Amino acid sequence: MIQSQRGCTIRGNHYDHIGGHGHLSAHSAWEAAWQQAGGLSIAQNRASDEAQYFIRSLIFSRQLGPGDTLPPERELSAQLGIAPLTLRVALRALESDGFVTIKRGSKGGPRVTDADTLTNCWRDWVRARGDEIREIQEYSRIVEENVARLAAEKRSPEDLAALERAMQVPDERPIPVVIWHVNFHDTLGRAAHNRPLYQAWRHLRREWFIATAPVGDGREENEFRRFHQVMFEAVRDRDPARAVEAMRVHSDFMDTLVVPAPPEDDR
């Protein structure tokens, strides 16, 4: 590595500087990079993928339930800040996976499918992504056990009060149980007072909604209430070992939700 007269760092024959004059022209370097990336329009793919992910996460978190209608495509695309064509790609993908149905015509539009179809589609979706989900589970355990440990070590009186508030389900504005639970985790993450770890949790939150079926059976709320109480007491008592163990037991339970039982025909 040497220094050029223009003050640009040079590695081999390539300038690490826009406008440098390595042995590849600007166009040939772009062509090579573009071909290696598959020649795809990344920004457009990301926009439709993000829209698909966002709508699916609302279904998984039960903010959208079976039979709920979505706004017309033009209105929905404006709300999401994307082009109608980009939204249409996302909706067609969701329709193909069975999460929504799209009725054509002036009085049509996208609608979440019925409960039975939704549960079956979710089961198929989880099975098709087994390796990805296992990786998320492993990542989740690493992040959350360390969040629990640090929260018990570093929490302030204000953090403890915030955790206690997060344990309460607001009566005046009911929210889906999964969202309530995620908010408790978010409050716990703040109590750890570690910004990189909190950012890791925020990234993990994007994947959180794969963890429970879009139609619940009531087990989750009982477990969430138990976990919130046990974790609150461990953090209150400044007991990191107990906090980590509480998180580990809770993760074991969550793992049972993410892998659905096979249908009778498959057993």
List keywords for this structure.
267 residues, mainly alpha, Arc Repressor Mutant, subunit A, Four Helix Bundle (Hemerythrin (Met), subunit A), two-stranded antiparallel sheet, 11 helices, elongated, disordered N terminus, disordered C terminus
Mind explaining what this structure looks like?
It contains 11 helices and 5 strands; from the N terminus they run E-E-E-H-H-H-H-E-E-H-H-H-H-H-H-H. It has 267 residues and is mostly helical. The protein folds into 2 domains: 42-120, Winged helix-like DNA-binding domain superfamily/Winged helix DNA-binding domain (Arc Repressor Mutant, subunit A), CATH 1.10.10.10; 129-264, Up-down Bundle (Four Helix Bundle (Hemerythrin (Met), subunit A)), CATH 1.20.120. A hairpin with a 2-residue loop joins strand 2 (9-11) and strand 3 (14-15). Helix 6 (130-154) packs antiparallel against helix 9 (195-205) and helix 7 (157-166) packs antiparallel against helix 8 (177-191). The chain is elongated. Mean pLDDT is 77; it is low at 1-27 and 260-267.
CATH architecture heading of the largest domain: Up-down Bundle
CATH level-3 fold name of the largest domain: Four Helix Bundle (Hemerythrin (Met), subunit A)
Residue share in β-strands:
5-15%
What percentage of residues falls in helices of 4 or more residues? 55-70%
Number of helices: 11
Structural class: mainly alpha
Rg over C-alpha atoms, rounded to the nearest angstrom = 23 Å
In N-to-C order, the SSE pattern is EEEHHHHEEHHHHHHH
At the first level of CATH, what is the class of the largest domain? Mainly Alpha
Shape: elongated
Largest sheet: 3 strands, antiparallel
Gap between N and C termini, in Å?
A: 61 Å
The largest sheet has its strands arranged as 1-2-3
CATH superfamily of the largest domain: GntR ligand-binding domain-like
Number of domains: 2
**Number of extended strands:** 5
Overall mean confidence score, pLDDT: 77
Low-confidence stretches: 1-27, 260-267
